[in-house]
C-alpha cells in the first residue's frame, strides 16, 4: 500500500490554506479543494482561473464578493451543528472572502469550460438524505450534488457517519466512462471528527485497486483535517470509531461530457444493499435537517 494518497493534517497546507489540493499537486485533471482559515477581521482574495468554485463555511460566517455581487453566508458553528448556506463563483473571476469573527471555509473546485453566473444558495435549499440502514446508516447533505445545484463539472456533498458506523459501503468506484452505468470522477475526501470530552476522534479509510487507472491502494487512519485522494479504485468503507461522529466532504469532477454521479458497487459486497430494507435507520440520524424554506 502507498501513503501518497493520504495527506495527514498539515501536509497539504499552503499559506492561508490548511488544505490546498490542486490538479497539479494531486496529479490529475480536474478536482481541487482548499480549506481557508481566517482570523477575526480576516480576508482573502483569489483568482478562480480555469475552475468553478463553491465557497462552503465549515465554521463561522463570511461575505463573498465576486464581480458586482456580494453574498453574505450565515454559515454555522461546526459541520456537526447544521447545514450551511454557500456561494458559487465562476471561472475567470476575482473573488474576495472576508469574515468579521473568523472561521474555516472550504473551497471546492473543478476545472471547467462553461462560465456560469455567480449565485447564493440558502441552507434551506440543501437536500438532506439518509442513506443505508443499521450500522451502514449515514447522512448526506447534497448541497452540490448533480441534479441538485447547477455546475459545469463540480460535484460536492457532505457525509456524516455516526460513531461506530460504516459509510462509503458497499465499496464502489467511478473510474471508467460507461454511459448510463458509471462516471469517471476524481474524488477528494476531507475529514473532521467530533471529539468526546476533549478526546479527538478518528476513523479509517480504505481504497483498493479496481484494475483501472493507477491501482490506488490505501488503508489510512484519518483524523481532523486529513485528506485522502482517490484518482481511481474501489473506495470504502469509511469507518467511524465508536463514540466519535465522522464528517467528510467529498469533491468530485472528471472528463465525462455529462455531469453525473454513476457508481459501480464492488461485486463481493453489493449484496449488503439487499439487507437494508429489513433494518431501521440509525435513530441518531438525522443529526440535523435543513431549515425550512421561508
From TrEMBL:
EC number: 5.3.1.30
Keyword Isomerase applies: yes
Domain of life: Bacteria
One Pfam family cited in the UniProt record for this chain: KduI
Protein name: 5-deoxy-glucuronate isomerase
A molecular function GO annotation: 5-deoxy-D-glucuronate isomerase activity
InterPro entries: Deoxy-glucuronate_isom_IolB (IPR024203), KduI/IolB_isomerase (IPR021120), RmlC-like_jellyroll (IPR014710), RmlC_Cupin_sf (IPR011051)
High-level lineage: Bacteria, Bacillati, Actinomycetota, Actinomycetes, Kitasatosporales
Main EC class the enzyme belongs to: isomerase
Keyword match Translocase: no
Keywords: Isomerase
